[in-house]
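hey can u run this one w/ nicotinamide-adenine-dinucleotide bound, need the structure tokens asap thx
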Amino acid sequence: MSASPKSLENEFTEFRLLIDGRQVPGASRMDVINPATGKPLLQCPRADRAQLDEAVAAAKAAFPGWSRRSWEERRVMLVALADALIARQDEFARLLTLEQGKPLMQAQFEIGGAIAMIQAFTQMKIEPKVLREDATQKIVQLRAPLGVVAAITPWNFPMILLMIKLAPALISGNTVVAKPAPTTPLTTLKFGELAASILPPGVLNVITDQNDLGGALTQHPDVAKVAFTGSTATGRKVMASVAGTLKRITLELGGNDAAIILPGVSAKEIAPKIFFGAMINAGQVCLAIKRVYAHESIYEELCAELAKLADGAVVGDGLDPKTEIGPVQNKAQFEKVKEFIADGRAHGKVIAGGKVSESGGYFVSPTIVRDIPDDARLVREEQFGPVTPVLKYRDLDDAIARANGTEYGLGGTVWGNDLAQAYEVAARMDSGTVWVNKHLDLPPDIPFAGAKQSGLGTEMGHEGLEEFTQLKVIHVAKSA
Ligand code: NAD
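ok here u go:
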């Protein structure tokens, strides 16, 4: 059952942009669709170019004051932000399910992760480093904040991906203009409302668009850094658009992560882990398992186990507690996923799922495809949906070469009983993050980066914090 707009209004006040500490209506309004029904959930504000300029100007004006505050003062405000989110955790989770589609338990997990992300950055600090000191001189390395950061996020994890940017940007003294994806603006707008009563005006600004303001934001001369998560195609546009002003950028982009299953593992034991890694959030995870390479000795059994899990999975509205897999987030992605299923049928064998809803909601039953060649679209491209190809290999070197044979290099997993061998395979995968015998474990204090066309720069961890700063070295001669 999805909530009516009426019951939403009871839980939340009206949705507004946040510009210069003020909650303001948009220049116009736009529908937000509930992916479980395909129908409008409610309307929210849509900013125009003038409001974008106001938001950037407010962030620019707030920067000198915010950056001059002590780290401790900023830390206290970020702790207050995390506490405010904790106090409304359940409402945020419900709103996230309504706009994004994910099962409520996964939404609760995402809000918990967003809180943990803020808290983790409040525990970090960048201290000045004395690089050299003797009787005549002292050389000190500092890290100065950059200025206005544009935080641009996609629709699969709107809250956690926002905090990955916002928390390190703010704690290190930058100000922020956040722009969520057009199909999942609500939780970010609500977070702006929380921030309005905690942060000084202009430190955080939230604007929304219909995919029409991203370019203006990344090109804006008063934006110092773009922290972007989204598709590789849009990432390329961002990179081109910042060239004119040589802005700093962090790009966290698409992936086509392979899972390599070594001989000797129990298909029955690992199948649920592989299935979860491929299907969580309806497969709409940058680091989801998007291709499975199974050794020929367990291929048959693994395919059968995955098909059994797919047949048994409960697909439905994320607000229904029985639901394990929610709808695909938006219509455009739903249409794309249908194409991948058709490709699976045309070039491989669909052994489970393959059904899509005709009811208006964007539901896709978890789909397992076997006997599909490496050059099929479903294997080559990022499907970003609950459709998983399972491929067979005989020779391990060949499997690694096939896993690496892609422009992407975000993540990957290796599953095996011989840990030394599994580690060696992991080290040979051309990806920024590789897990052995587990998946999607992402502690906020551990850095995360994409290799090849999956990204540029690092998020999370101390390295992720430093990305929001400029290296600065001061040389002092001890006598004038
Ligand atoms: P997208 O690239 O379509 O959109 C991402 C954001 O960019 C949205 O806010 C969008 O409005 C904005 N945008 C659109 N055009 C822009 C432009 N010209 N300039 C600047 N911004 C612009 O991505 P999506 O479809 O929302 O998200 C799915 C993609 O995100 C997948 O490829 C997924 O793998 C990737 N992703 C990557 C990570 C990671 O950490 N590497 C995490 C989550 C998602």
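The mean pLDDT is 96. anyway lmk if its weird
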